[in-house]
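ok so I'm stuck.
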Amino acid sequence: MKSSFAYLGVDVGSITTKFAVLNERDELIASLYTRTLGRPIDAIQDGMRQIEKQIPANVAVQGVGTTGSARQLSGVVVGADVVKNEITAHAVGASHFVPGVQTILEIGGQDSKIIILRDGIVTDFAMNTVCAAGTGSFLDQQASRLNMRIEDFGPLALRSETPVRIAGRCTVFAESDMIHKQQMGHQVEDILYGLCQALARNYLNNVGLGKDIRPPVVFQGGVAANAGMVRAFEQVLETEVVVPPCYEVMGAIGAAILAREHIARDGQETKFRGFGLTEIAYATSSFECSGCSNRCEVVVIRMAGEIIARWGGRCGKWEL
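replied:
not stuck anymore, here's the structure
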């Protein structure tokens, strides 16, 4: 017999998929950070298999929330009670660990965002999904080019005593400048920390342009693991930058908290499909609606051959 309840948050992005399970006191009892690999449904099902093994047998999932760029898809697959955008989920997650946070720097695998809060309410935000400079994928690429593990990037960058200036406004320019500095004989650690400084400047001059950045400042997302990036932000902002203990799954944590609040407020039973969803055959397809000049692309989700969701049309004609 299940003796306690838990709440599941799922954050599916283009590069990574994150899971977080919180107990009734919003304490993290299980988490998972894995690669999406271009197959979000497979990533969700595989992640659910792994997360089930981390949860005690006497714990029942009472509510589920989804977020991320594939939040609609993941919401259908797992049976979500709430589906929220990344801004809301990350703000809720950060506020849980750092009450009173006023600025959130979030850099993931393929995009970045800044969130401004005042008195616990999001008052402004900006996202960058176009330029890859400063994102996790770019840093992974540079670590690979230098024949080093991404885990070693930050510690090595912190050893720099005379960082070189790197042009960080574009990935192409940044990489070219790094190669040039290597050819000039600069130390790898000085080049790496110079890159961290360049990417911090690029982030603040683009994503953070015109934003009222005030402490406490929280840095989350996969790139927050890079100690060189943390120090670079602290230097340019001239304030402490807090990296929460669960920085890589903060969106999922926020989604789980939102799910708990939703269940408590509405008193409804969860729509969670259960961990048996890992054995269900899901399929996605799309078609272009010819009903008007908008020519909307409508996404169709099938479970065991049956249509369970459609979205993408502007008029709602195809919504289930």
